[in-house]
Amino acid sequence: MSISKYYFITKTNFKNSFAYFYDSLFSAIFIALIVFVFANIWTVVFRANPTGVINGFTLQSMVWYLVVTEAILTSQGRIIIQIGNEMITGEIANYLNKPYNYLFYKYFSTIGSSITTFLITILVGGLTAFIFVGPVQINPIILPLIAISCLLGITLHFTLMSVLGIFALWIEDAHSLAWLYQKVVLVIGGTLAPLDIFPAWLSAICLVLPFSFITYYPAKLFVLFNLNEFIQVTIIQIAWIVGAIIFAQILFKVISKRVSINGG
Amino acid sequence: MAAKNTITHKLISNIKVFWAYLIINLKTILEYKTSSIIQFIAMFFNDIVWISFWWIFFAKFPLINDWTYHDLLILWSIGAMGYGLSGVFLGNRHLIGDIIVQGKLDYYLALPKNVLFHSLITRMPASPFGDLVFGIILAILTLQTTQLPLFLLLAIMATLILSSFGVIIGSLSFFFQNSEKMNTTLWNMAVGLTLYPTNVYEGLAKIVLFVIIPVGFVAGVPTEIIRSPSIEGIATMAFVTLVIGLIAIILFYTGLKRYESGNLLYVNS
Amino acid sequence: MFKQEKSIEMVSVTNLSKSFKLRTPQKGLANKFFRYFKPQYRELKAVNNISFSLKKGEIVGFIGPNGAGKSTTLKILSGILFPDGGKVTVCGLDSQKNRKELAYRIGTIFGQKPQLWFHLPAIDTFNLFSRIYELDQKEYKKRRDYLVKRFEIEDIITQPVRKLSLGQRMRCEFVLALLHKPEVLFLDEPTIGMDVVIKKTIRELIKQINKEERVTVILTSHDMGDVEDICERVIVINHGEIIYDDSLKKIKEKYVTKKIVRLQTNKPLVFTKREGIKVIKKTEFELEAEIDTTKVSFNKLAAGFFDKNDIEDVTIEEPPIEDIIEKIYKEKPKNSHK
User: Fold this and answer.
1) DSSP secondary structure letters along C97-144
2) pLDDT tens track for C259-300
3) Does B28 touch chain C if contact means CB atoms closer than 8 Å?
4) Of B167 and A86, more confident
5) Are residues C180 and C115 in the same domain?
6) pTM listed for this prediction
7) pLDDT digits (tens, 9 = 90+) for A157-168
8) Which contiguous run of DSSP H or E holds residue C18?
9) Same-domain check for residues C223 and C291
10) pLDDT confidence of residue A111
């Protein structure tokens, strides 16, 4: 459980992630396409609005918001399917004997490629946003803080996906579960459009669900930074992550008992 | 022997083969009922999530240019039908590249049927049924009964355009070294644009989406035609369907000739 | 009439050549990028001016090491690839120009690429193929029922193929391949992964079908047992050229130069040393020797032994066919036809 061991795993993953470069590039290009579409849609919407501001968002902030949410969302790739399949095929048994915690291992071995994918998507998506609506007005000072928010968002995304991956064992279909989860976060997590434009009753619900802490809050802080909000969000993100980890660990212990009863 | 070559005879035997594949494909789906049902539900759910999103969006912004939520629903019913019909009946439309890369063409080349037609109909996954049923239900709920025949006609053309795209993208594997990942991404890109409102583009974007890679014709243009039907609109759709279909067929068979002449991109002993 | 039918040429290959253009792999990112759009090629000559012909009803073994040009030749014969030079006629049709027509008349079995739909009963694939080959349904059903009985698969054709054993699956694959009464049958590794008993059954079935239906069979197999058991004639390909094209019997005559003999006698051995006989072991009642058949007539020698001795037991061993074939593979091509 030593820190240096995890650091080494992360570093190795970063090096390997260059092999995933093309994969990341392709998903980034796909995101750029979505940014392109919404840039056009938002342009039309804002044109009809005389003030040029909707719920505090300008056209630029709206489109750059999307860049950030999509970058966070797509950074995780195929975790649910990976974990789910390892559950189903019983490959998980190999990991139960290793001297490191399975989930921590998974996290540190994928965080490298996640960050790479995230950065590439920001780059490609940002370029697209820049071409079609121009730059977003933000104070560069906040960027390190936003990096923290995004990293926490990615981590929360990973943790929730891990929980679902473990559930995949019961329904024996990791793909569909991953699919459903992605769709839910797309809307409820405020990925496609910020929760601010949702009807009040709906946004009230979504704001307290963990999904909004994956994409909505980090992206919103990026385009509409507020220090108090940042501190609150960070605390709640950490709380959700810890809660999910505890839940995942419990689930995992249950599973490993079940696996060893079944003859491993 | 001579009788075998008449056009009617060929057509009838191809219809029989098509039907035979339908049956065997359906049997395969039924063989794995649970998995098929889950896939069906997942796709259906996906479509519902999307029109829910748009409901939220249009609740805040009732008009995008001159489109209302109702128009978006028309777009989605055509699009879902297009995905559904093509996925069910021409299930390999987005996997032609994979078939080439994995050397599976040899299987089709040793059999006495048109290679493209044969490879397209061999597969029928369960998920497109989700789109198909969703599209039908949405169309019935959204459109008036008098609009349904036009809807059906346009949905069939959308199916053909979508499938032609798949074939064109897949056929690139004959000429360039494509990875399977690249194939999937190209497909997702080309068709990912089809289910968004198409009346928001101007200038260069409009030219790209309606002329160069005419994704706008899959669901966007049919939506406009249903909003204000015209003979010119329908004729244009038919023309585009025909042209894209011909491009797909010509590109595929040109590539196939290259493959048979042994331009070994993919060594498969 | 009979004699004429016997000498119908089913496969005719004349001066066949085939080269492949292989992309030369590039080093360096810039090179990789540019070469993606304008690739560099090098030529690989897979088949170099080969000629042979097969008569109706022949069973031919097509053997050669991997990369020898075997599969390329077979792909050209079945219309999958075009020749660069030469002419290929199968069932009287140009394999390049009449691919589809030819496809009606040939059947294929790939040991490693089954054609039966895995998750469904074999009969479903049979029905599908009856449509692909445009068979008259009444005729098809008669033919199907006949073959099903012949291959003894009545009980298993309604079970999903994934539940069948390897031997059962292969028998179903055979029925599938024969449904449309092909004139030429390509068998590629048909007994791969099977145990000895099943191999024997399959080999018997091939021979019987060949006799009954006069199907011309082209077999490729790395199992020399298959070749020995089934094929009258063997074509050895290596480096894109035909190294040997004749009967298996003649191969042995030509390449088998040694036999190992073990004798056991009831009375003390009477044995005179001679050139061509190398003694491995000799006791009062036992003899083990290696006979060089190029130097001494084995028959005469054996007659002599039996004359002079009261033989209790005798075994005669030849080097395995694999060793012989390996020897042939190592030979330089001579560009020889029959």
Assistant:
1) TTHHHHHTTEEEEETTS--S-TTSBHHHHHHHHHHHTT--HHHHHHHH
2) 888 888 888 888 777 888 888 888 888 888 888 887 878 778
3) yes
4) B167
5) yes
6) 0.85
7) 998 888 887 777
8) strand C9-23
9) no
10) 86
Query: What is the pLDDT, as a whole number, of residue C251?
Result: 80
Q: Which residues of A touch B49 (CB under 8 A)?
A: 183-184, 186-187
**Residue C266: inside a domain, yes or no?**
yes
Q: Flag whether B9 is in a domain.
A: no
CA–CA dist B138, B6 (Å, integer): 42
Question: For C113-139, what is the mean pLDDT?
Answer: 95
Question: What pLDDT score does B226 carry?
Answer: 96
Contacts with B122 from chain C: Cβ below 8 Å: none
Dihedral sign for Cα atoms in the order A19, A22, A24, A25: positive
Option in B16, B110, B265 nearest C80 (CB): B110
The residue segments making up the domain with residue B230 are 32-260
Which of B35, B53, B196 has its CB closest to that of A173?
Answer: B35
Residues 6+ apart with CB under 8 A from C307: none
Whether the per-residue pLDDT at A264 is higher than 50: the answer is: no
**Phi, psi at residue A65, to the nearest 5°?**
-55, -45
Residues C235 and C263 in one domain: no
Q: Residue C297: give its domain's CATH number.
A: 3.30.70
Number of CB atoms found within 10 A of residue C308's CB: 13
Chain mean pLDDT for chain B: 91
- Residue B2 belongs to some domain of the structure: no
Q: At what angle do helices B33-60 and B69-89 cross, to 10 degrees?
A: 160
B111 touching C, CB under 8 A?
Answer: yes
DSSP assignment string, B235-256: HHHHHHHHHHHHHHHHHHHHHH
Q: Which residues does chain C have within 8 Å of residue B32's beta carbon, measured at their own beta carbons?
A: 119
CB-closest option in C20, C108, C132 to B262: C20
Contacts of A40 in chain B (CB under 8 A): 200-201, 205
Whether residue C191 sits in one domain with residue C134 = yes
Give bridge partners of residue C110 from the DSSP assignment: C188
Q: Is the pLDDT of residue A197 over 90?
A: yes
CB C189 within 8 A of CB C110: yes
pLDDT in tens, A40-79: 999 999 999 889 999 999 999 999 999 999 999 988 766 6
Report the C-alpha gap between C282 and C269 in whole angstroms: 9
**Contact between residue A161 and residue A79 where contact means Cβ atoms under 8 Å apart:** yes
**C287 in the same domain as C228:** no
Domain limits at C305? 257-317
Tell me the C-alpha distance between A165 and A145, whole Å.
30
Query: Are C265 and C137 contained in the same domain?
Result: no
Same domain assignment for residues C203 and C290: no
| Record: contact B185-A186, CB cut-off 8 A | no
Name which of B66, B192, B216, B53 is nearest A44 in CA terms.
Answer: B66
Q: Tell me the C-alpha distance between B141 and A264, whole Å.
A: 52
Query: pLDDT tens, B198-244?
Result: 899 888 888 888 887 888 999 999 999 999 999 999 999 999 999 99
Nearest CA in chain B to C78: B110
How far the first Cα of chain B sits from its last, in Å, is 34
Residues of A with CB under 8 A from a CB of B: 22-23, 26-27, 29-30, 33-34, 36-37, 40-41, 43-45, 48, 171, 173, 176, 179-180, 183-184, 186-187, 192-193, 197-199, 202
Mutation pick from B264, B265, B266, B267 vs chain C, by most beta carbons of C within 10 Å, is B264
- pLDDT, position C338: 37
Length in residues, chain A:
264
In a domain, C278, yes or no: yes
Give me the interface pTM, i.e. the ipTM.
0.90
Give chain B's domain count.
1
Pairs of residues, one from chain A and one from chain B, whose beta carbons lie less than 8 Å apart? 72
Query: B185 contacts in A (CB within 8 Å)?
Result: 26-27, 29-30
